[in-house]
Amino acid sequence: MTYQSKEMKAVERSLLGKTALVTGSTSGIGLGVAQALARAGANVVLNGLGEPRTIARIACEVARANGVDAIYSGADLSRPQEIETMMDEAIRRFGAVDILVNNAGIQHVAPVESFPVEKWDLILSINLSSAFHTARLALPAMRDKGWGRIVNIASAHGLVASPFKSAYVAAKHGVIGLTKTIALEAAQSGVTCNAICPGYVYTPLVEAQIEGQAKAHGVAREQVIRDVLLAQQPNKRFGTVEEIGAIALFLASDGAASITGAALAADGGWTAH
Ligand code: NAD
After folding, report:
1. Beta pairing partners, 165
2. E-only strand ranges, the chain
3. Three-state DSSP class for residue 72
4. How many helices (H) and strands (E) does the chain have?
5. CA of 114 to the centre of ligand 1 (A)
6. 168 counts as catalytic
7. Of 71, 54, 55, the residue nearest 19 (C-alpha)
8. pLDDT, tens only, 130-170
9. What is the predicted pLDDT for the residue at 7?
10. What is the pTM assigned to this prediction?
């Protein structure tokens, strides 16, 4: 093995011995982030909804492919009590959650005046309040260790709005406010807190929007992608879950120790407008 490849190997396993909890990691961006952190050696706590057999297979694959431990919590993040149970389980099993990635999120599209009230409450609870609960429960052990990373998956919609997404946009702006507040409170304890703000990334959440809009307007998928979803995204392509995983991995690294309270746009130039 050459000197260079030895060094690369060390960098690749930079999170050995650490534990990462990624909410909403049974699919899409969360799964991409969990895989990136596991590849770097972190044990992972997966969370999310879905079919139990599929989730068991995902957990097994993440663990086996990366030589780490992977456990799964089925906590429904709209329920604070279930979040407490998930955090207790993670801390009991691994001693601490060193890297917390708040990623779980849902979407609903409707004008403000007809936005279903229960959808508003659900989006606020899953997309925003759950990040408050996981962070408040993870912080004490992070402070004790003098090291911790909180990465919140916000959105370009945490920086700018689009019509018909009132709850989502409000929640994502809230996530950025929460990110900055935690960053200030934790700044002297070795714990950083940052938000990643992706533009459109191709995942099941986006597929549902393509399908929904194509049906609602009676137009082809390609037209929805070009004229609606990517209309604001100057690079005219979807981001990938691997790209978001790579940013989360960087924010979890020691090299990112001075980055805290940031909202990093990964949106192909959308919010540069
Ligand atoms: P996705 O639908 O593929 O995944 C969402 C995950 O959240 C799933 O694992 C799902 O099971 C989980 N989840 C949903 N409700 C839950 C609940 N009540 N309790 C626990 N888990 C729950 O979506 P995605 O596109 O990968 O989105 C992930 C995050 O990235 C979301 O916060 C989303 O707002 C954000 N985001 C996505 C995009 C995009 O274009 N895909 C862009 C910007 C931001």
Report:
1. 110
2. 19-22, 43-47, 70-73, 99-102, 148-153, 191-198, 263-266
3. strand
4. 10, 7
5. 23
6. yes
7. 71
8. 999 999 999 999 999 999 999 999 999 999 999 999 999 99
9. 44
10. 0.96
